[in-house]
Structures are given as C-alpha cells and as structure tokens.
Design a protein that fits this description.
The structure is a single chain. The chain has about 280 residues and is an alpha/beta fold. It contains 10 helices and 8 strands. It has a 6-stranded parallel β-sheet with strand order 3-2-1-6-7-8, with helices on both faces. It has a two-stranded antiparallel sheet with strand order 4-5. Strand 2, helix 6 and strand 3 form a beta-alpha-beta unit. Helix 1 runs parallel beside helix 10. It is elongated and about 65 Å long. Bound molecules: carba-nicotinamide-adenine-dinucleotide and zinc ion. Zinc ion binds next to loops.
Length: about 280
C-alpha cells in the first residue's frame, strides 16, 4: 500500500526523511549497531557520559587508587582481584524491574517487519533479549551475563547462573561449584577475542546492509567500532547519539541525529509509520 502523504507544512529533519524512506520500502536490510546509550533511559549507566557514566562514578569513588577505569574489564586485573568487576556487575546486570527502552523496541519493530539484517550490540545487559530480539538477528558482540564459567586452569566448568546472580546481588564474588575457582561471566574483557559469530557475520552484514543505524555508542572500543567505516560508500549511516561518534557525518548521505536517543527513536518510528511500535 502507498504511504499516506504527510502534510506539506511538516518540516523534515534528515532523520524523518530517512524514516520516510524506510516507510517507502527503500531500506530492507538494516544493520544496527548499539551501545550503552540505548540503555541509559532504562537506568543502566553507560561508561563515558561525563557525570552519570560509570567511569566518572568510579573516579569519584576510587579517586587515585584506581588507575584506568577500563582495568575493571582487564582479565589480569580480574584474576588478581575480581571484586571491582563484580561490584560493577551489579549495575550492568539489571533486575527484572528494568524495562527495555524505545531504542531496544526499535530493533524489535524492524525485525518484525523483516527489515533487520542484524543488530550488533556492545551491551551486556541483556535488554535486547528482554525486548524480544534473539540470535541470530541479535548479535551480542561483547557477550552477556546469560552464562558464566570457571576460569581456573583447566576446569572450565559452566557455572550455575542463578548462583552467580545471587552472589552478585549479595555483593560477593561467586566461585566454581566444581573446584571453588574463579568464575567469570561470558562477557568479553579487553584483550579477549569476540564471539566467533561476530567474525563469521561481519563481512557479509557490512557488504549486504542497505543502511546502517548506529545508536548510543562512543565508538571507542575495537573491533566493533570499525563497523561504520567498513560500510561501502553510498550506504547511508545514521547516528542517534548525544555526541558525534567515529566518522559518521563525514560522508554524503550520512545522517546525524544528535540529541536524546529516546526522542530521536520516537521521531524515526513516527516517520516510518509505526509510532506505537516503540512505545512501552
Ligand atoms: P560509552 O562509551 O559509554 O558511550 C555511550 C554513548 O552514548 C556516549 O556517546 C553518550 O553520549 C551516549 N548516550 C548515553 N545516553 C544517551 C542518551 N540518553 N541519548 C543520547 N546519547 C546518549 O559506551 P559504548 O557502548 O560506546 O562502549 C562500549 C562498551 C561499554 C561496551 O563494551 C559495553 O559492554 C560497555 N557498557 C555496557 C553497558 C550495558 O550493557 N548497558 C553499560 C555500560 C558500559
Ligand atoms: Zn572450576
């Protein structure tokens, strides 16, 4: 069915024009790349926001005792002292009371309409799954808290995830039921390889995408951050974020929607013709 024409007086932002192109059927293989910014509206702090971000919080709490806040996600620091990571896990592993945001629902809405090629998330909070998106359409590039295993030499036993959760909620450090060793959730630490499915999907997705939507990420963590640069010329790259990230905006056809993500998602979904799909 032809999309109903919008009143001529409505001013069109580049984002609304992009949404209307989706509505017109122009883009059908969207690749989404999301980061911590899609979850801040749900109350999950991101890393790098100036005052509310976890790095700023860690600096306030630990001051100079903390070297680089990214050390929390460093495997050797974790082995030496897992407590800082597990303290942070309480923030990043949301309880059932934490609900997905409009940005999470955007991915689901595109998937239901057959328009999503893949959603790459750097997040480990599991909110995309709660919203209703699952692999293989959902690709959790940095893993998740859904599983955990023992990292004591040679053991590798899968951990009882309910017990891990209980320990985290109690503010303690979980240990392996088999050997008593150190348990690590299957989230990707700095220096660790990404899940094999990331490398298996990346080239095909980047080559086949007819538009790429980047939402809520500072694009500072490799290798995920190279995705937008790897997109072939002529394929629009759309950024929904408070600040510019990567080189998005430098190519003709790029769209910068700078501001609050939830407002931008609302505007985009309305222009797509399904405003209700992103509402809670
Ligand atoms: P980041 O570096 O903290 O960047 C977040 C970006 O989102 C920043 O550019 C912010 O300006 C922007 N932002 C935050 N909230 C909003 C908002 N409401 N509206 C508009 N823009 C907003 O986080 P990245 O995801 O880029 O960094 C990658 C790391 C962070 C990944 O490995 C994650 O695992 C890790 N992380 C995940 C979570 C989570 O799972 N929710 C939380 C914190 C960190
Ligand atoms: Zn063990």
């Amino acid at each position: 069915a032809a999309a109903a024409p919008l009143p001529a007086a409505v001013p069109s932002t580049p984002l609304a024009l992009f949404g209307r192109a989706i509505r017109a059927g122009r883009y059908r293989r969207l690749v989404l790349l999301t980061g911590a910014g899609v979850s801040t509206a749900a109350g999950v702090p991101d890393f790098r926001s100036p005052t509310a971000g976890l790095y700023a919080c860690l600096r306030r709490v630990a001051g100079d005792r903390l070297g680089d806040p990214t050390d929390v996600f460093c495997i050797s620091s974790f082995r030496a002292d897992p407590a800082p990571f597990y303290a942070l896990a309480r923030e990043l592993w949301p309880s059932e009371a934490v609900r997905p945001t409009r940005a999470h629902r955007l991915g689901v809405a595109l998937a239901r309409r057959g328009l999503l090629r893949r959603l790459y998330t750097q997040n480990i909070d599991g909110l995309d799954r709660v919203a209703g998106l699952v692999p293989p359409l959902l690709l959790e590039a940095h893993g998740s808290f859904a599983t955990a295993k023992c990292i004591e030499g040679g053991c590798g036993a899968a951990a009882d995830i309910a017990a891990v959760r209980a320990a985290v909620d109690a503010g303690s450090v979980p240990s392996c039921g088999a050997c008593g060793g150190l348990v690590k959730p299957d989230v990707v630490f700095f220096g660790e390889p990404l899940p094999a499915v990331f490398h298996a999907s990346f080239d095909g997705d980047v080559a086949q995408a007819d538009a790429v939507l980047v939402i809520g990420t500072s694009l500072r963590v490799a290798p995920v951050c190279v995705l937008p640069e790897a997109v072939p010329p002529g394929v629009p790259r759309v950024l929904l974020n408070r600040e510019v990230a990567g080189d998005i905006g430098e190519r003709p056809g790029d769209v910068l929607a700078l501001g609050d993500i939830e407002s931008s998602v609302t505007e985009l979904a309305a222009a797509c013709g399904w405003p209700e799909a992103v509402m809670g």
